[in-house]
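Today's session is about reading a structure prediction critically. Students often jump straight to the picture, but the first step is always the sequence itself: look for stretches that repeat, for charged clusters, for runs of hydrophobic residues. Only then move on to the predicted structure, which in these notes is written as discrete structure tokens rather than atom positions. Here is the chain we will use throughout the hour.
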Amino acid sequence: MNILAWNVQGLGNDWTFQILHDYVQQYSPSLVFISETLSSKSQMERLRIKLGFSRMLLWEKEGRSGGLCLLWSDTINVQLLSGSKGHIDVRVSSDDSICWRFTGLYGSPDTSLRYHFSNLMKRLGDSSTLPWLCGGDLNEILFNHEKQGGIERAHYLMSNFREALNYCGLADLGYRGPKFTWCRGKATNLVQERLDRMLGNYEWMDLFPNSCVHHLNLRGSDHHPLLVELLKADEFSKFGKSWKRGKFHFEEAWAEETECSNIIKEQLSSSRTDSLEGVAGKLCLCASDLESWNLESFRRLKLQVRKAKTAFDRIDKQLSSHNWKEHQRLEKVLYALRYKEERY
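Below is the predicted structure for this chain, in token form.
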């Protein structure tokens, strides 16, 4: 079972939604927690349908900010325990009778309100004895080494955060991938911090001892998405699925390709008979040629996407003020290629 958590900073952007859709397709999360949706209930309902989830819990945005959403598939049962503009707390169970708790968290970016978040964490800790996994964009770091650039974080803020986690019996689950999960600023003044994380109590870690948290690529938002693989003692990380094409049909995107037009013209202008059988034969040959051309074109496009993603990943893992402009350029290239790939 996988869980995806991401501060999307608004889902009105087609690029951000496409990235979210890609991650859902690639990792098949059973549970997705989204913060800063900046979207209405009707907008989120449409997105839920597009993403293919059966159910949704929503804390709507306030004005032009905020908004939390929890989406889940029909492979699990989810029961709401509590919610606010800073959290959605649920009880999760599945067919194997394992029952535990998940809390999607969103810490206020206003440092003067951080004590409210610490108090919320303590109240949540007191409210249940279930195995507990929680996380999201907490908008706080534990130590100053979790920040690069800008001024140092005030020690009392980090101390209050650590105290709240200790009170709740929560431990950081670690991560694989880039060190920081948030990035903002210009190339000459880049600030990076580990604001997003996953936490678990010891009862939850006993249930899923091989679990792993991945920091996914920084794309479409200032925050890296978090992917959590819930793995029992006899389970190991498995990523990726084979790509499959459906039966032949004419794709809208083909009409923009000169090669496609040439194939159609060549087949339909051939000297074969214009009887009904002859026209049907032309269409069959045309379809066959288009299918072969599309397969080769798609292979070339997939190769371009793979090369662009490899270059992007390389920079994303070592992001700094020196390569920030190249990071932005590659993100645009990757967006254009993925958009073309999606239309195919």
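Discussion point for the tutorial: The mean pLDDT is 86.
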